[in-house]
Design goal:
Length: 482
């Protein structure tokens, strides 16, 4: 299995730090819970879920950590605007985030540490940097990380983002969490309390204040995964300064064993455009997941689109793409339904694999080959739909046995454990629609086709499609118009 490592700018064979080669530590920068996550955020989280699922598919045991940033500049501004206590404000958006997380079928991380619950670890890490002469306290009481002193002590700054030291304006300080990428200077580890902070502060050896954004991730990742771990994920917008600063302060603390880095593999997902442009509320192309659900799309359709392109390539997210995803998943669902009917036709259960040695198209081999090459999801989807076409051809020709259908379903279950698009969940039709279906069946038996057609249209107008199958009528929910 190969992954592109941002640190080395190369495709590398994945080899965990674990001496046994099976345990994997994975950290993904999580949400800042000041508002609902938008679709650009979700691309990163779905990509992280894909990588975790594929590692588990390959037999690794993954320890997945994703932080919750519940204190930083934007949050404090919102707290002051609303007058709510910090936790009361952030819990609303944290809860919404994990609801959306489940809607997109992402596996819950094993640990989701909140910054506000790790103040002692943050303070201890800052204290260590102070003791090593790499951090200093400014006259206003804030504590800053010194890039100049870090480099003088043998540290390398700029290796992740390819920033040269002579480009830095050494001696300048930036206190805000939201400073521009082109302003790489000493960054705040601890921010002295100001009137604008209100009640959001903690005691520390340097006075009352709160942590800077970068130090939060270093303290939490090393708390839960140790001073060195395998994978650090995030969007490419976090490469600089956030991840660059994480490396500096984590390795500057000197907690790693000789010869080990803070993180072995840095993996970053590319930006997402919406309708070909950068997402902006003023352009009308800014979407949260909830906006898309309100338009009638399902979580699995959004997930499919977010996984439709390689994670390192810019993805153009469109409403037309969501409609296309609905069609593609519909073809997949139809094939799986036919496979299930065939598998159950003689055994009574799809789980019986009697005679499963019957030849079926191979899905697992092409899928694994594609995903092993830096998660080549486009090639993986191509393998899935080639498999669907071949199975449909064999079922139409009557050459696929029930045992073969059961074996094909077992292959799909393995692959869908990674893709997590599954079959749509069955939705129960309202009682009146079920009654119209029964009346239509009676009309067809009586050869009253005019009434049967009228009832079909009534069912359709209620948002349902009735299909006639050898086992009787089947209802399908029609998609709402986007």
């Amino acid at each position: 299995m190969k992954l592109f490592n941002t640190l080395t700018r190369s495709l590398e064979t994945f080899e965990p730090l674990d001496p046994g080669g099976r345990q994997v530590g994975m950290y993904c920068c999580g949400p800042t819970v000041y508002d609902y996550a938008h679709i650009g955020n979700w691309r990163t989280f779905v990509f992280a879920d894909l990588l975790r699922r594929y590692l588990e598919f390959r037999g690794y045991t993954v320890r997945h950590v994703m932080n919750i940033t519940d204190v930083e500049d934007k949050i404090i501004r919102r707290v002051q605007e609303t007058g709510l206590p910090l936790r009361e404000y952030t819990v609303r958006y944290e809860t919404a985030f994990f609801e959306d997380f489940e809607t997109l079928r992402c596996r819950r991380p094993h640990h989701t540490p909140r910054a506000t619950e790790h103040i002692p670890e943050i303070i201890e890490l800052i204290r260590r940097l102070m003791d090593r002469g790499i951090a200093y306290q400014a006259p206003d009481g804030s504590v800053y990380f010194s890039i100049e002193k870090y480099v003088a002590a043998g540290g390398q700054y700029g290796q992740l983002a390819r920033v040269r030291l002579d480009q830095l304006r050494v001696g300048e300080r930036v206190r805000s969490d939201e400073y521009a990428k082109e302003t790489p200077v000493d960054f705040a580890l601890w921010k002295a309390r100001t009137a604008e902070d209100g009640d959001v502060y903690w005691p520390s050896p340097w006075g009352e204040g709160r942590p800077g954004w970068h130090i939060e991730c270093s303290a939490m990742s090393m708390k839960w995964l140790g001073p060195s771990f395998d994978l650090h994920l995030g969007g490419e917008d976090l490469i600089f300064p956030h991840h660059e600063d994480e490396i500096a302060q984590s390795e500057g603390a000197g907690l790693q064993q000789p010869g080990r880095r803070f993180v072995k593999y840095w993996v970053h997902g590319a930006f997402l455009l919406v309708e070909g442009r950068k997402m902006s509320k003023s352009l009308g192309n800014f979407f949260t997941l909830r906006d898309l659900l309100a338009r009638g799309f399902a979580g699995r359709e959004v997930r499919y689109v977010l996984l439709s392109g390689h994670y390192r390539e810019t993805l153009n997210f469109t409403l037309e793409g969501l409609q296309a995803a609905r069609g593609a998943l519909g073809r997949l669902d139809e094939c799986l339904a036919r496979l299930r009917e065939l598998a159950e036709s003689h055994t009574g259960t799809a789980s019986s694999l009697s005679g499963a040695e019957a030849p079926v198209p191979d899905l697992l081999g092409p899928f694994e080959t594609a995903m092993d090459e830096d998660l080549n999801i486009s090639a993986a989807w191509a393998a899935v739909f080639e498999w669907v076409r071949e199975l449909n051809r064999r079922m139409a020709a009557g050459t696929l046995t029930p045992a073969g259908a059961a074996a094909a379903l077992q292959q799909w279950a393995r692959v869908d454990d990674v893709l997590a698009v599954g079959e749509h969940s069955e939705e129960t039709a309202p009682p009146e629609v079920l009654q119209w279906v029964e009346e239509r069946q009676a009309a067809r038996k009586a050869r009253d086709f005019a009434r049967a057609d009228a009832l079909r249209e009534r069912i359709r107008s209620a948002g349902w499609l009735v299909e006639d199958t050898p086992k009787g009528p089947r209802l399908k929910r029609l998609p709402r118009t986007a």
